[in-house]
Write a structure and sequence with these properties.
The complex is a heterodimer of chains A (460) and B (225). Chain A has 460 residues and is α+β, with helices and mostly antiparallel strands. Chain A contains 10 helices and 12 strands. In chain A, a hairpin with a 2-residue loop joins strand 9 and strand 10. About 2% of the residues of chain A have low confidence. In chain B, a hairpin with a 2-residue loop joins strand 8 and strand 9. Chain B is an alpha/beta fold and 225 residues long. The chains are: A alpha+beta (460), B alpha/beta (225).
């Protein structure tokens, strides 16, 4: 029970509690009111009946004690005594009964008691209707008056019906009040829940509107304080990576420029210094790419969905040709299916260039070189596939290879142009920002096949 | 005598390394560590091109760029660690001709400087073009709007001449990037957009409703005939 109640919502519980409380209270009040009213009505009726019976008995007694009792027409006397009233008389004298109707069935116990000399009264039912019999001893017998209580019964039934209706009505009203109160109570909680969900979903600017209500104000204030703190913290974390990248750009520029001065005098250096210089040059280059990738990827953290794309219509085969030329790859690796000839996407040219560059660099660094760059069209989707001749990617690594700083298993390290694992993570972020997907599968002739799917612009 | 380059950067390492690298390439190099020094050095040395860092102590690079532009049409290449669109656009709006982001390779920088120099030479075609009340005389380096001479930077002038070379024909942003800035296919088309905006403030009577340099949505720009 407790478990069932607890699993029920606060709103439902409040509604039920207020409904039940109202029902209980109104029922008790109705019962008390009914009891008191009934007692008062019944007692009043009885008192009247007893007085009437006593009067009637007095008249009959006088007649019986009169000078010629034997000559009395008792039936006529009885009719006279009760004339104008609803009571039915019954006179029992010397073993003979006079009277009609209701009075015929006065219970034997009551008869006996009154005949023995003590007045008495009793309520009972005749043919389903309540009656009241009042008996008074008279000279040589007993006088009864039997009064129908049907009228009183009906009054009481109407009263109980009214009270029951009022009790139920009050309970329903209580429930409705509970429902509306709980709705109003629960609404801010729902709002807070929706705001929390939005916050968790990455909309860091989500806040609860300020409210006048001091109780709800506490909730709104502390929620907003929490959201501020969370947003501040996330932004600080993301900005840290961006700041680090920015700060590294100036020394990298100096390194690069100084390096070029030394490289232009390479021939004047002893062989060991030349080796060291080449090593420095390679690493400075890698370092530069890493800083770029780090900055690019931290922007995705910073802004949730990433920085806005500089959108334009891009001729995808043209983009692939330019990237391959820039990376000194032979034009023959490009294989554009007829269906994809001249296909365009709406995208950010420089980010898509990074996607293809990173995939091709990855194939060169870890896959033994690019064997094929395919472009095909499947309905509304354009599919760029970069295939290599390397050892491929093991099934267990096919998802993780797109994680940041992932280092492949024994079959060879992958992770992008830098060799430290941001290249493919950046590919996934850029592609996702374009509404596309990327995955890796085995190439038809061995090696790995990285497949990027992008939504095509316009009809084919 | 080589071309004079003024390097403005608050990082002494960058100033020294660029001086060494550019002197190797035959340039005469002056440097300045702040915007104020840059304005003094500019007045004293009259360099042929300015390499300007945007993040400077005191007067920032944008302000320095505007002040240089106010007194001279010298080519300015903004050098910045910031690549976000608003920063790049703000640098170009301040009057820069081109931008390059740190870290860059020296050959890349030299290529940008050479492209800038080529731009300063007279265009290949020198027929005068009359487009409405706009008169373009490439051979004389003169542009007149409603008969009054308009002062354009070398880049703005070159951009207008490229559009005027084939009046009424649409040139894509890529084509303009290649012809005016010597950029390849992956050049930043924002440079073109900002320069067109700047050009319009000078050659359009009503820059918000251009009548001469028109945008052809999704294709590029053209000069109205």
């Amino acid at each position: 029970m407790g478990r069932g109640l607890r699993s029920t919502g606060l709103a439902t519980r409040l509604t039920l509690a207020l409904g039940a409380g109202a029902l209980l209270l109104s029922t008790v009040l109705a019962l008390v009111a009914y009891g008191l009213s009934r007692d008062a009505l019944v007692r009043g009726r009885e008192r009247v009946a007893v007085q009437q019976a006593a009067l009637g008995a007095g008249v009959v007694d006088n007649a019986l004690l009169g000078p010629q009792p034997a000559a009395l027409d008792l039936d006529a006397l009885l009719v006279g005594v009760t004339a104008g009233r609803e009571a039915a008389p019954l006179l029992v004298v010397e073993g003979r009964s006079f009277g009609t109707g209701l009075s015929a069935e006065v219970p034997p116990a009551l008869r006996r008691q009154v005949l023995e000399g003590s007045p008495a009264q009793q309520r009972y039912r005749v043919a389903g209707e309540a009656v009241l019999a009042v008996g008074v001893p008279v000279e040589g017998g007993a006088y009864f008056e039997v009064t129908g209580l049907g009228e009183l019964d009906r009054t009481l039934r109407v009263l109980s019906g009214t009270l029951t209706g009022a009790a139920v009505g009050t309970a329903v009203l209580g429930g409705l009040v509970g429902l509306s109160a709980s709705r109003r109570l629960v609404a801010p909680v729902r709002e807070a829940a929706a705001a929390a969900a939005a916050l968790a979903g990455g909309r860091l600017q989500t806040r609860l509107p300020p409210t006048e209500d001091p109780d709800l104000g506490v909730l709104a204030t502390s929620f907003n304080t929490m959201a501020d703190a969370l947003q501040g913290r996330l932004e600080r974390d993301a900005r840290f990576a961006a700041d680090v990248s920015h700060e590294l750009r100036s020394p990298l520029t100096t390194l690069g420029a100084a390096m070029s001065v030394m490289q232009s005098r390479r021939e004047q250096l002893p062989p060991r210094s030349q080796q060291a210089l080449d090593l420095l040059a390679t690493e400075v280059g890698r370092f530069g790419v890493l800083v770029e990738d780090l900055l690019a990827i931290s922007r995705y953290d910073d802004l949730g969905g990433g920085p806005p794309l500089d959108l334009e219509d891009i001729d995808l085969p043209e983009l692939l040709r330019h990237v391959l030329t820039g990376l000194a790859q032979p034009a023959t690796v490009l294989d554009v299916a007829p269906a994809a000839d001249g296909a365009t996407v709406v995208g950010d040219k420089r980010r898509l260039e990074r996607v293809v560059t990173n995939l091709v660099s990855n194939a060169v660094s870890h896959g033994g070189g690019v064997t094929r760059v395919g472009l095909d069209r499947h309905g509304e989707a354009l599919e760029v596939a970069v295939e290599d001749d390397g050892p491929g990617v093991e099934e267990a690594d096919r998802e993780r290879v797109f994680e940041r700083f992932h280092r492949g298993s024994a079959s060879g390290r992958r992770g992008g142009s830098t060799g430290v694992g941001l290249g493919l993570a950046l590919v996934r972020s850029h592609v996702a920002a374009h509404g596309g997907t990327v995955h890796v599968e085995p190439a038809p002739c061995g090696g790995a096949r990285f497949v990027v799917t992008l939504p095509a612009a316009g009809p084919s | 005598m080589g071309e004079r380059v003024l390097v403005v950067d608050d990082d002494p390492g960058i100033r020294l390394s660029l001086r060494l690298a550019l002197e190797d390439q035959g340039y005469d190099v002056d440097d300045a560590g702040s915007g104020e020094q840059a304005l003094q050095a500019f007045a004293a040395q009259a360099p042929d091109v300015v390499l300007l860092d945007l993040m400077l102590p005191g007067m920032d690079g944008y302000e320095c760029c505007r002040r240089l532009r106010a007194v001279s049409e010298v080519p300015i290449v903004v050098v910045s660690a910031r690549t976000e669109t608003p920063d790049v656009v703000a640098g170009l709006e301040a009057g820069a001709d081109d931008y390059i982001t740190k870290p860059f390779a020296v050959p890349e920088l030299v290529a940008r400087l050479r492209a800038m120099r080529r731009r300063a030479r007279q265009p290949d075609h020198d027929d005068a073009v009359l487009a409405g009340d706009l008169e373009i005389r490439p051979a004389e380096g003169v542009v007149r709007l409603q008969g009054r001479e308009v002062s354009l930077t070398k880049t703005e002038f070159r951009l207008l001449c490229e559009l005027a070379a084939s009046p009424g024909r649409v040139l894509s942003r890529e084509q303009l990037l290649e012809r005016v800035w010597d950029y390849g296919w992956f050049g930043d088309a924002r440079i073109v957009d900002v320069h067109v905006r700047r050009l319009r403030t000078k050659v359009e009577p009503e820059p918000s409703e251009p009548r001469h340099v028109l945008t052809v949505r999704g294709l590029g720009y053209k000069l109205a005939t």
